[in-house]
Design goal:
Number of strands of chain B: 0
Radius of gyration of chain A: 16 Å
CATH superfamily of chain B: ACP-like
Strand order of the largest sheet of chain A: 3-2-4-1-5-6
Number of helices of chain B: 6
Largest sheet of chain B: none
Order of helices and strands of chain A: HHHEHHEHEHEHEEH
Helix content of chain A: 40-55%
Strand content of chain A: 5-15%
Structural class of chain B: mainly alpha
Number of domains of chain B: 1
Number of strands of chain A: 6
CATH superfamily of chain A: Glycerol-3-phosphate (1)-acyltransferase
CATH topology of chain A: Glycerol-3-phosphate (1)-acyltransferase
Oligomer: heterodimer
Largest interface: A-B, 23 and 23 residues
Largest sheet of chain A: 6 strands, mixed
Shape of chain B: globular
Distance between the termini of chain A: 41 Å
Number of domains of chain A: 1
CATH class of chain B: Mainly Alpha
CATH architecture of chain A: 3-Layer(aba) Sandwich
Helix content of chain B: 55-70%
Radius of gyration of chain B: 12 Å
Number of helices of chain A: 9
CATH topology of chain B: Non-ribosomal Peptide Synthetase Peptidyl Carrier Protein, Chain A
């Protein structure tokens, strides 16, 4: 059972996501199998794992977890279901955002909330990772906007604090799916290290985008 | 260095990172970095690094976590100016 009954309830919505994926999105089967095998392998190891993607559609926060594991897998292994970092006022979730944030495994942080809120969120992420629970976020925001990096800092700060963290970069859009595991390193320390690590992940996501554009 | 000179340095460093150019053009001490200039956390780190490079100082996140407005950044620069007046004066003279 899920450690939190509300999280278990929201996990029940994931099979709907799987049905939606099968009927509408149709990710390539080989790529889907490869991604799920990789995710299972990484989560079974219990090492800190960040899953990073760019937004290609409004429903990514709901659909991406469905791509990561077979239907029902998160009901059997609730701790493998990723926490999701999201803005409580997200335009993507619209009116359902408060419900989603209440029920889902969501780490809330407002994009314009200032550095202190982001530092707090980074600590929240690190606590989940230290407990062997993966975290999913969209550090480079919308795929149409190369200037935006709403949660890039969180990735850099987490990787600087927990260098053993691996990053599973996923590129998912209708009919296309790909992934890459990266483990960025830096010779710098402090803020420069935070930024360099964040840029490494952002660039890996952009490369995945370019490979499929 | 007085407050107006510090403001000049701060606005020069902030300008390339602000997403809202209209607000940037009219920026003053009360301008909010995150809401008005639409600077996100990644850009904010870029700004802090730009300050490090231009002023020759090391900034940690604790010093910057409560910064909300242009005026807060000005106060930070004035503190640096007190510690390292030459570097800040050099930054002021650079375009």
């Amino acid at each position: 059972m899920s450690p939190d009954p509300l999280h278990g309830l929201s996990a029940c919505a994931l099979p709907l996501g799987n049905a939606w994926l099968a009927l509408r999105e149709r990710p390539p089967r080989a790529a889907l199998r490869a991604l799920r095998a990789r995710y299972r392998e990484l989560t079974e190891q219990g090492e800190p794992l960040l899953v990073c993607a760019r937004h290609h559609r409004a429903s990514d926060g709901w659909l991406l977890p469905c791509l990561l594991a077979a239907p029902g897998a998160f009901l059997l292994h609730p701790r493998r279901r990723p926490w999701i970092v999201a803005d409580p006022r997200s335009r993507f979730a619209g009116r359902l955002a408060p419900l989603w944030h209440r029920l889902g495994r969501v780490i809330s942080v407002r994009q314009g909330a200032g550095l202190f809120a982001h530092i707090e969120a980074a600590l929240g992420i690190q606590s989940k990772l230290a407990g062997g629970e993966p975290v999913l976020l969209f550090p480079a925001g919308d795929a149409d906007d190369d200037e935006d990096e709403p949660y890039s800092y969180l990735v850099g700060r987490t990787l600087e604090s927990m260098p053993a963290t691996r990053v599973l970069c996923v590129r998912a859009s209708r009919g296309a799916l790909d992934h890459r595991v990266v483990a960025p390193t830096t010779k710098h320390s402090g803020l420069r290290a935070v930024r360099e690590l964040a840029l490494a992940v952002r660039d890996a996501l952009r490369e995945l985008d370019r490979a499929h554009s | 260095m007085n407050e107006n000179e510090a403001l000049e340095v701060v606005l020069g460093i902030l300008r390339p990172f602000a997403r809202n150019e209209q607000q940037m053009a009219a920026a003053n001490h009360a301008t909010r970095l995150w809401q008005d200039l639409q600077i996100n956390s990644a850009r904010f780190i870029d700004i802090l690094l730009a300050f490090e490079d231009r002023l020759g100082v090391a900034i940690d996140e604790e010093q910057a976590e409560d910064i909300a407005t242009v005026g807060d950044v000005v106060q930070l620069v004035l503190r640096f100016a007190a510690e390292n007046p030459d570097a800040v004066e050099r930054a002021r003279r650079e375009p």
